[in-house]
Write a structure and sequence with these properties.
The complex is a heterodimer of chains A (about 400) and B (about 325).
Chain A (H helix, E strand, L loop, with lengths): L52 H26 L13 H9 L6 E3 L5 H6 L9 H4 L8 H4 L11 H14 L6 E6 L6 H13 L3 E7 L2 E2 L2 E2 L12 H5 L3 E5 L3 H16 L5 E6 L18 H8 L3 H11 L5 H21 L21 H22 L9
Parallel strand pairs in A: 1-2, 2-3, 3-7, 6-7
Antiparallel strand pairs in A: 4-5
Helix pairs in contact in A: 1-2, 1-11, 1-12, 2-9, 6-7
Chain B lengths: L11 E4 H15 L3 E5 L15 H5 L4 E3 L4 H13 L3 E5 L10 H8 L2 H4 L9 E6 L14 H5 L5 E3 L4 H13 L4 E6 L6 E4 L12 E4 L4 E5 L4 H11 L6 E5 L2 E3 L3 H11 L2 E8 L4 H13 L8 E5 L10 H4 L3 H10 L5
Parallel strand pairs in B: 2-3, 2-4, 4-5, 5-7, 6-7, 10-11, 10-13, 13-14
Antiparallel strand pairs in B: 1-8, 6-12, 9-11
Helix pairs in contact in B: 1-7, 3-4, 8-12, 9-10
Amino acid sequence: MTVLDHRNQPAEAAPVPGWRPGATAPRTDPAPLLPDAEPYRVLGTPAAAGTDPELLRELYRRLVAGRRYNQQATTLTKQGRLAVYPASTGQEACQVAAALALRPADWLFPSYRDTLAVVARGVDPLQALTLLRGDAHTGYDPRATRTAPLCTPLATQVPHAVGLAHAARLAGDDTVALALLGDGGTSEGDFHEGLNFAAVLHAPVVFLVQNNGYAISVPLTRQSAAPTLAHKAVGYGVPGRLVDGNDAAAVHAVLTEAVERARAGGGPTLVEALTYRIEAHTNADDATRYRQPEEVDAWRAHDPVRLLEDALRERGLLDERLVADAAEQAERLAARMRAEFHTDPAPDPMSLFAHVYAEPTQQLREQADRLAAELAAEAEAEDGTGSGVPGR
Amino acid sequence: MSTAVTEQHGLRTGTMAQALNLALRDAMRADRTVHVLGEDVGALGGVFRITDGLTAEFGPDRCLDTPLAEAGILGTAVGMAMYGLRPVVEMQFDAFAYPALEQLFSHVAKMRNRTAGKLPLPITVRIPYGGGIGGVEHHSDASEAYYAHTPGLHVVTPATVADAYGLLRESIASDDPVVFLEPKRLYWGKAEWDPAAAVEPVGRAVLRRPGTSAVLVSYGPSLPVCLEAAEAAKAEGWDLAVLDLRSLVPFDEETACAVVRSLGRAVVVHESAGFGGAGAEIAARLTEKCFHHLAAPVLRVTGFDIPYPPPMLEHHHLPGVDRILDAVARLQWEE
């Protein structure tokens, strides 16, 4: 019997066991915390008629561009222009629709696969790639863009989102924080601690788990025995929502509801978006070792871009001009990526010491001097004006 | 770091625990962005009472009792700092901080660097640390080497009541994250001190006792032991100087080298394990910088390389006066 099975049973006041002290917190009926028995969908359902056509068109343009971005970035890894790229092909709807549910003053806490969400926040598409290119850790200004650095350790950004949301609420601001993570991240302690803090602090924060089926190679069945990852919310006393992560309109609707609920003082929500990673974990991974092509093909048939395109056509919202515009916009982006990543960047070696502390320690100043001397000697050797450093 | 102590209190007699409490109180009065959070810091005032009365004066939002989860506490503090607050986190005991090490190492220490200076994190992590109070396992670790080895963190530890106040005020005012190690066994030592009197800034070592024979280099909980050893050494005809580092990061190489060069003999003393410990770094650095002034190798007196022992055996592990004097005797180096 799962928690879901309790939903239609009448709530009855259980007798308080004699061992339980009286002064416990009010206990919550778990049933209302999980409203979705099945993943919530919009596209292809009667609810689609109520979705703003302009939002659907905007999602379409961004999904098409996002798909192209994923393809171009993967190609750049093959050319050695990016150190690594964890493609989000197949997950574009989750990332784009979730980010679009935020207001500019809200904060996004992305993990490493969430470059499209970062771009949807307004970060320059190329600056979102500096970490993966290898020339700088974070290419954008987190404060200016209200977007935290792409987080590589799993789920450690979850308590950050909670703390920021908590601080914003204390300041009287209506800022909401959105933390993105994957199915593997829900096994980490920081996920648990973050959700528990959020619930206890009643923080205006939303957690979106993009369940793409695999944590690198480990399938969900080896990750969690919970009926759904949304079920995990019940243990913290917060609502859990289950949504079709390839249905951009559904993700946008569920996230908007959760974000606005948080903004209005309703506390945190955990959303599980069911989706699939079409590509391997990164370009360095061999996905054929742990999953069958039939499985990938089945998910290709449920492609987020195609779902949205079909829905738009059905409603007569997709004319050839929009198709052409979206395609052209995507190609322009890809061309810009190719052009700007044509050469290796030349980051300043002295920047190594620039931001370790507000003021460098004596030891760091000495090390910076040493590197500067090494660079000067190298430059001299290359100029042919000196013999370089002897013995090297 | 700049000294932020401005309040007028006048001369008073108090313990290190009281000085730390006053430092938190004054910091919270002076700056509304200072928030204290941790397990039991509220109604209880912390298990050592360092946060006593803060919730009563500043409310439960500014002195926040959190769920029992160290990674959650520190991770939440990261987000709070990102939004402009100055969180002061309490880790209840040294070894209880370990679940938060990923947050500390991967985020607190690196956020300034990862964001090219855009997101500095002014977080102070207070950790009651070290042994000598009869605590059972997991309550007496001396873990400073882990923190000092992590670039991006300042590592501070006071040995006097006045420093406890001054260094904590400065740590809270710092724009960089500070691991503030509070020597548990010095919590209840009383001293006369003036909170309004400025102390030396973080990153400056202080000569607690001048001497002419050799210098004992130490910090935090081992400092009073060194002073005691210096006193006892007089009977042996040794006039020992005692240098209090006060912070491991930044490390005051200039002062330490000046003393070592002038005396030619040095012993580094700390209670944490010697292998890979802070003393190894200090001894290596002093040797590299002062080699031609040394009359003997820089020696180390440290705790053994063992997990912290049961309380009935801890006095064998912790460096005492005899072990220090034994090292001093070995400084009479002969080729």
